[in-house]
Design a protein that fits this description.
CATH architecture of the largest domain in chain A: 3-Layer(bba) Sandwich
Radius of gyration of chain A: 23 Å
Number of domains of chain A: 2
Structural class of chain A: alpha/beta
Number of strands of chain A: 23
Largest interface: A-B, 73 and 72 residues
Oligomer: homodimer
CATH topology of the largest domain in chain A: FAD/NAD(P)-binding domain
Number of helices of chain A: 12
Low-confidence stretches of chain A: 1-5, 426-444, 446-450
Distance between the termini of chain A: 52 Å
Strand order of the largest sheet of chain A: 3-2-1-7-19-18
Chain lengths: ~450, ~450
């Protein structure tokens, strides 16, 4: 037990994503003692995860240690532990450390910000064949599968099997899916030049599926069309109104709007289709007597607190409020709002409701090409890309990461080269059932079973 | 089957380490068709592996893809496959691809250069608790364990258990062990400053064990003493004439020269004590009717060929010849010798025996401190370190890796910071028995069993 005995107001923050980290940083100015609990040791800059998956950046550049980011915040402690439950009456949070020993954290105010994971819409068995894009481990797994697929194609004599290794399927036409599809296409067209003798990597097929009528629907018709044209120019095959209904090692089964189905042989699949809130949202809702929405998010009051417990905040992707989208900007602002509310209460001031300032959204489509939706101003092409560059450099954590990322971007965007192409044994992870892990082979590269 | 039908002289190289890579590069100038087979997709710059393990460099910087390094060598094909056997009569090599399908490669000349792995001197069960330092996966596993140990210490209230998390044991006082011990000490003294609230990372104990009377014995007494003094100044506890005879999750059992034993609680152990040639050395010896030495290396003729088969070369750490040491320089020179011999034969010239040009050896002890033994000239301190810097930058592959490494060295050596501290699930690898992998916990961080 490590319940701190102190008279200072104790804030426990669960989750070190955008919401949790911004809350912790803001509380530097408040007379509180903060404990930030995360199951990982890092803050993940999730919008650049696709660049780790495609070999542009290393994991350290987008996942700095939380305790290093917060080293100047003397009133913040960071703990690496997995939160397992809440006792809202006792005001404690229970957790498990990496060595499976138990921990309890007592709080006066609690901020829960554990975000969202991938949703396979009831097809959890797909996760084995189509990793999501939510964690560093996801990105490293995909990096191994993508570069490994070209390795396998090079040594495959059978034309049909070679084609299956050279086919990449991205499910989901939101920003993550679009960025992944664009980067795999660019990689195959320029990044692997002169590397192979028997295959031509630029003949790789990249298919982007979306169930709706257009990709990047939230950006509006004009930008959506602009992005589609850029992706097609790169060679991405965009297939809208088509839903992936089946999957195995060999490929996917796709259903069209007219009900017809098609089998597409493809060894590499990436899932970027849906999200579901962290299971802690449902636990917190049960504990508080509240409820969750269809995406598993806990419904909060206008000040981001949970029902009947004004001292408990739920913020970021975990929270359902006013149909706000699950984007980094909402996470940062709700995290700040929770921290500000705690500070105001200690100063005797009344709560305010959360109001969202929409600073716009953006997605990179290809090198030198991005689309930006900024307060109704919609920009594409090179200007959009330069805005993307400035915003991402601004929000990245720490000088060293900014400098290193800028160097690797220059390398990739100018020469097409990728600095991070090492395939490691990390593919043999918990994602694969133990009986599959024999022989030290990479499961993504395994033969489909008969 | 992919036996190439061609009238060009076919060279198969097994292994893309220093020996195999240098052979492949040299053969650019020869009228031959080269197939380089490696079970990994990368060339590993092994002398810098300890910098990946301690968070200075990313894996991509020291492990560039073989096919990218060789992209300009149009007569070289690279295949990712694990060689399983040799048929010296048929002149074929059999291998397994990552998807478990079989391959056969026909050769006119064969160069086997699969190097050496870690040897636990009959205690293979130690490998679970004390990873070696031979592959990228080893280094990433150790990186997770080292940074994870400080995480665990921070949240541990029991003083004895906390001390066990803060104790790091390095077994083996050769260059790798010295460099690891020095870097862990520097990391704890400067790299983690202001990151923790309850522990003082600079109180970490780093113990370096060697069975012999001094560390770095091959460098001679004067440099060995100099290195010992530098390490002690950093806070490394050097324990010579002490052998690790037992190990579990909780610590190690050490035996002194007088026969007495001691138990030392320590959660993090690193094995840098011995090497054993790749199992292919013994297979090749059996196939050729030759023999291996105590370290499992195949005994070769003075021209680096195996007995009775002048068309088959064994080079690098895999080979026993004239008591040559297992260092990168010997690997490069024997690889080049094999390639040169193949070229000379095609030009109708006679074979020459291999002669080793000793260009010296070096080891970094701390930042700005290295020891160098260059043709009898023995240098330590800052001048040695500058020589180390120049040599390593020269031999690193590719501009981008040199530039990135230089940036990260500047960062680490000037400010003490580490760019790569992300702990990922990769710790759950094949190293751990399946029944241990439950719960997604990091095995290195697991509770010792009762």
């Amino acid at each position: 037990m490590s319940v701190h005995e102190t008279s200072t107001h104790r804030v426990v923050i669960v989750g070190g994503g955008f919401a949790g980290l911004f809350a912790a940083k803001f509380l530097r100015r408040a007379p509180v003692q903060v404990t930030l609990v995360d199951r990982e040791n890092y803050h993940l800059f999730q919008p650049l995860l696709y660049q780790v998956a495609t070999g542009i950046l290393s994991e350290g550049e987008i996942a700095p240690p939380l305790r290093d980011v917060l080293r100047g915040h003397r009133n913040v402690e960071v703990e690496m532990a997995t939160v397992t439950g809440f006792d809202l009456e006792d005001r404690t949070v229970s957790a498990t450390r990496p060595d499976n020993t138990a921990r309890t954290y007592a709080y006066d105010s609690l901020i829960v910000a554990t975000g969202a994971g991938q949703s396979y819409f009831g097809h959890d068995e797909f996760s084995r064949w189509a990793p999501g894009m939510k964690t560093i481990d996801d990105a490293l797994e995909l990096r191994g599968r993508i570069f490994g697929a070209f390795e396998m194609a090079e040594s495959e004599d059978d034309i049909a099997r070679r084609q299956a290794w050279m086919t990449f399927i991205v499910v989901g036409g939101g920003p993550t899916g679009v960025e992944m599809a664009g980067q795999i296409a660019e990689l195959s067209r320029t990044g692997l030049r002169h590397n192979f003798r028997r295959i031509d990597p630029s003949e790789a097929r990249v298919l982007l599926f979306d169930g709706g009528p257009e990709i990047l629907a939230s950006f509006g018709d004009r930008l959506s069309l602009k992005a589609s044209n850029e992706l097609r120019r790169l060679g991405v095959d965009i297939q809208t109104k088509r839903v992936v209904i089946g999957m195995d090692a060999a490929g996917v089964t796709v259903k069209a709007a007219d009900g017809s189905t098609e089998q597409i042989p493809a060894r590499t699949k990436i899932w970027a289709a849906g999200v579901h809130a962290s299971p802690l949202a449902a636990q917190l809702a049960t504990a508080a007597g509240g409820e969750t929405d269809r995406a598993g998010r806990i419904k909060v009051l206008p000040n981001c607190t949970v029902p009947h417990h004004p001292e408990v905040f739920a913020v970021g992707d975990l929270m359902a409020l006013d149909q706000l989208p699950g984007v980094a900007e909402v996470a940062m602002q709700t995290g700040l709002h929770a921290a500000l509310t705690i500070k105001r209460r200690l100063e005797g001031e009344d709560d305010k409701d959360f109001t969202y300032r929409d600073l716009g959204s953006m997605a990179t489509v290809a090198r030198f090409r991005a689309i930006v939706d900024f307060r109704g101003i919609r920009v594409g092409g090179l200007i959009g890309w330069l805005m993307w560059l400035v915003v991402h450099l601004t929000f990245m954590t720490g000088f060293k990461n900014r400098f290193a990322a800028l160097f690797h971007w220059a390398l990739t965007f100018m020469s097409g080269q990728r600095a991070q192409r090492t395939i490691t044994l990390r593919e043999v992870t918990a994602r694969v059932a133990p009986e599959d892990a024999g022989g030290g082979q990479l499961p993504g590269l395994r033969e489909p079973e008969a």
